[in-house]
Amino acid sequence: MIDVLQSALHDAFSPIGLSFILAAIGLNVHYGYTGLLNFGQAAFCAVGAYGMGVGIASFDLPLAVGLLIGVAAAAVLALILGIPTLRLRADYLAIATIAAAEILRLCFSATYKEYFHARDGVSGFTAGFRSLNPYPESVDTVLTYNLDDLWVLTVGWIVVALVCLYLWSQMRSPWGRVLKSIREDELAAQSLGKNVYGYKMQALVLGGVIGAFGGFIGGLGLASVQPDSFNTDFTFIAFTMLILGGAARILGPVIGGVLFWFALSFIGGVLGKLTSGDDPVIPPHVLDNQQLSSVRFMIVGLVLMLLMIYRPQGIIGDRKELAINER
Amino acid sequence: MELRRHVSMSLLVSLLITALLALAGSTAAAAAHDEDKPGNLVTGQLKDTSNNGAPVEGVTIEVTGPDGQGYTATSDAEGVWEVFVPGDSGGRFTVTIDESSLPEGASMREGRPTTLTPTALPNQTLRINFDIGVDTRDVATKWDQVPEKLYSGLLFGLMLALGALGLNMIFGTTGLTNFAHGELITFGAMATYMFNAVFGWNFAMAGLMAVALAALFGWLQETALWRPLRHRGTGLIAMMIVSIGFQFLLRNLFQYFTEGRTESYADHTTPAGHDFNGWFTYSYRDLVLAGIAILVLVGVTAGLSFTRLGRATRAVADNPALAAATGIDVDRVIKLVWIVGTALAGLCGVFLGFSLQVTFQIGQLTLLLLFAAVCVGGLGSVWGALIGSLLIGLLIEMSTLVIASDLKNAGAMLLLIVVLLIRPQGLLGRKERIG
Fold first, then answer.
1. Set of chain A residues whose Cβ sits within 8 Å of the Cβ of B253
2. Residue B307 belongs to what domain range?
3. In this complex, is the C-beta atom of B246 within 8 Å of any C-beta atom belonging to chain A?
4. Between the CA of residue B428 and those of A64, A257, B368, B371, B383, what are the distances in Å?
5. Which of A136, B186, B246, B406 could form an S-S bond across to B363 if both were Cys, CB 3.0 to 4.6 Å?
6. Do A327 and B435 touch (CB under 8 A)?
7. Size of interface A-B (CB pairs under 8 A)
8. In chain A, which among 94-113 make CB contacts under 8 A with chain B?
9. What domains can be seen in chain A, in order of their start residue?
10. Chain A neighbors of B372, CB-CB under 8 A
C-alpha cells in the first residue's frame, strides 16, 4: 500500500500535473474571475509548447527566445480569438473556443510537417534547459523523481508560486475588482464607464499566457510536444481541477490540481493492486489492465457531475463568487 | 467519368503507339548501326499533354554517355528522338532536354526535371520520358470526384441531421447545450453492435432495439438527472458542465466495455456497389438508410409543426413560463423532447456505425460537427438543424478535394466560428435567441 501512496504522491507533483495546474490557473483568470467560459485552453498551452519546441528544435534558437515565442504566440492567439468572440454569450464563447482549439490541434497534426512532425510531435528541444540543471549528479532520485524531472519541477513550482503571487496582488487591485464586477454583472460594469471588452481581452491574454507556461512545463517534462495531448479532454480535465479546488480562489486550481492527480493515480494504483496477482480481488473478466484507465476517467466524469451539482464552489471556493449561475 | 474514360483510352492508345514506334525505332536504329556493334540505344517520344498529347517536333535532346562522350538528337514529326551510344559496358547516362528548343506553346510540366540520369545495362535500350504540358490525369480525377463527394457528403449530412435535430430540440426547450449528445450517438452504435454482432440478431431488429433503448435512456436521463437539476434551480452553465462530466463518464464507460477496440456490425458492412451513370458508386444499403433518415426527419419535423404536442413543444421552446401559464405541462413536453431527441441520436449512431465503425470515439468525433451543424443552421431552429447538417456534410466531403483529408473537420469548425461571428443566430435562427 505504501508504494501506491508513494506513486500517487509522485504523480500529484509531477511535471505533467504541473502543466495542467498552470492551465487551470489560466482558466481561473478566465472563468473564475472574469466569467469567460473558455473551453479552448488547450490551444493556449499548445501554441506555447509548439512555439518553444519548434523555435528551439527547428530554428536553433536559444531557450529564452523559444520561451518568448511561446508567450507571444499565446498572446496573439488570445487577441485573434478574443477580438471577434468576446462579445458572444457564454455558451457561444464556449463553442467558438472549443472549435478554435480543435482547428489548431488538427493544423498541428496535419500541416507543416517539416516543423510540427505530425502526430510524432516535436522533440529535441530540452538540451538548453537541462544544461541549466543545478542538481549535482550524486542526487539520483528524490521521491522517485529523476534528475531532469526534479529540475523541471523546481522551475515549475517556482513559476506557479510567482504566478499565484502576481494574481493575488492583481485580483486585490482595482483592475481585479473590475474583472469580478464583469463576472457579476457585465451591464453594471459597463454603465459605470468601464471598458468591459478591453478588460475581458486583458483577462483572456493573461490567462492564455499562463496557459502557455503550462505548455512549457509539460513539453519540458515529457521532452516532446504532441498534438493529441492538446485535445478537448485537456481543457475539460483542467476545468475539473479548477472546480474541484474552487474557482475564483488563488490557490483553488493548485489545490484542485494536486488533489486531482493524487486521486487519479491513487485510484489507478489501488485498482491495479486489486486486479493483479494470482488471485485478484477483482477478476480479470470484470476489470483488466486495459480497462483501468477507463474506470479512472469514468470516476473523473462522475466527480465532475457530483461536484457541479452538490458543491459547485469546490473545496475552498465561495458559492457567492461563482459565474455559473448566471446566463 | 465519360471524360476520364476518354482520357484513359487515349492514354492507352498513345502508350501503345509509343511502344510500337519505339520498337520500330530501335529496330531501325539497330539496323542502321551494325548489328554486332555493342552500345546503348537511348530513345523517347515527346508529347504535349496540354495539346491533346500531340507530338512535339524539333526539340533538341543532349545525351552524355558513361564515357563522357556527348551526342545530340532532335525529335521528328512523331516526336520521336533517338541516340545510339556505342560502348560495351553500359553505365550512367545523362539525358537533357533543351527547354529553349521547345516550340511555342509547349513547356515542361511544372516541377518535373529537364535532366535525367538513368543507368543502363550493356546493350540495353533506354526509353526516356520527359513530361511536357499539364498533368491531365490528375485534373480529370479531381473533377471526377465531385459527384462522388457530393453523394457521400449528402449522405453523411443526412445522418448527422438526425443527431443535430435532437441536440437542437433539447437546446430549444431546455436551453441546455448538451455536451454529452455525441455519446448518445455512440450509444446507438454500441447497442446495435451488441444485438447484431454479439447476440446475432438480424440488423433491422438490432437497429430498432437500439433506438428503443436510446429512447428509454433519454427518459431515464431526464427523469433521474436533468429534471431534478432543473427543479433545484441549477444554472444552465452549471448544467452544461454537468453534461461535460456525463460525457466523460459515458465515453469511458463505452471504452470500458469495448476495451478500446474498433468493431463493425455483423451484417451489411460491405454492401455491393452500383455504378450510377459512371458518376458515383452507390449501394442499396446507403439508399435505404438515407430513405429512413429522410422519413424520420420529415416525420419529426411535421410532428413538431402540426400536432398538438408539437405546438406545445414549440410553445415551451419560446417561453416556458408562458407555456406553463396556458396549461401546458412543461415537464411532460421536456420529457418527450428528451425521449425523441435521444432516440434520434441513437438512430444517428445506428447509421454512423457503418461509416465511422463502432468505437467509443464516435461521440468525440461527431460532437463538434453537431455543434457546427446546429450553429450554422440556427440554434433552436428545426429546419436550421437539417440545413446546417447537410451543409456541414457537404463541406467536409468537398473540402477533401482541396485540403488534406486529415484537415477536413477543420473546415467545418472554421465555418462554425465564422457563422457565430457574422450571424450568431445561424442561417435560419431568430435573432432574439442569441440573448
1. 294, 298
2. 144-434
3. yes
4. 50, 43, 19, 15, 7
5. B186
6. yes
7. 144
8. 94-96, 98-100, 102-103, 106-107, 109-111
9. 2-321 (1.10.3470)
10. 99
Alpha helices (H) along B48-92: none
Judge if B242 and B364 occupy the same domain.
yes
CA atoms within 13 A on the CB side of A122: 29
Please name the residue ranges forming H helices in chain A: 2-12, 15-27, 41-59, 63-85, 90-110, 113-116, 127-130, 147-172, 174-184, 186-191, 196-222, 232-245, 252-275, 289-310
- Quick one: closest CA in B to A37, which residue? B237
Does residue B307 sit in the same domain as residue B429? yes
* Residue B248 buriedness (CB in 10 A; 0-12 / 13-18 / 19+): buried
How far apart CA B300 and CA B297 sit, in angstroms, is 5
Helix axes A174-184, A147-172, angle to 10 degrees: 80
- CA B326 distance to own-chain centroid: 48
Q: Which three cell numbers stand for residue A24?
A: 487551470
Contact A96 B417 (CB under 8 A): yes
Minimum Cα–Cα distance from B406: chain A residue: A110
Task: Return all residues near A321 (Cβ < 8 A) that are at least 6 apart.
Answer: A32, A180, A247, A248, A313
**Measured between alpha carbons, how far is B278 from B272 in angstroms, rounded to an integer?**
15
Quote the ipTM score: 0.90
Burial of A128 (0-12, 13-18, 19+ CB in 10 A): middle
Nearest CA in chain A to B257: A291
Q: Considering only A80-89, A318-327, B10-19, B49-58, which range has the smallest mean pLDDT?
A: B10-19
Is residue B171 domain-shared with residue B86, that is, in the same domain?
no
Cross-chain residue pair B240–A91, CB shorter than 8 Å: yes
User: For the whole model, what pTM was predicted?
Assistant: 0.78
Quick check: A316 contacting B, CB < 8 Å? no
Residue B359 forms contact with A (CB below 8 Å): no
- Contact status of B417 with chain A (Cβ, < 8 Å): yes
Q: What is the CATH number of the domain that holds B110?
A: 2.60.40.10
Q: Are residues B277 and B413 in the same domain?
A: yes
Q: Is A282 on the interface with B (CB under 8 A)?
A: no
Structure confidence by residue, pLDDT tens digits, B309-359: 888 888 888 888 899 898 899 999 999 999 999 999 999 999 999 999 999
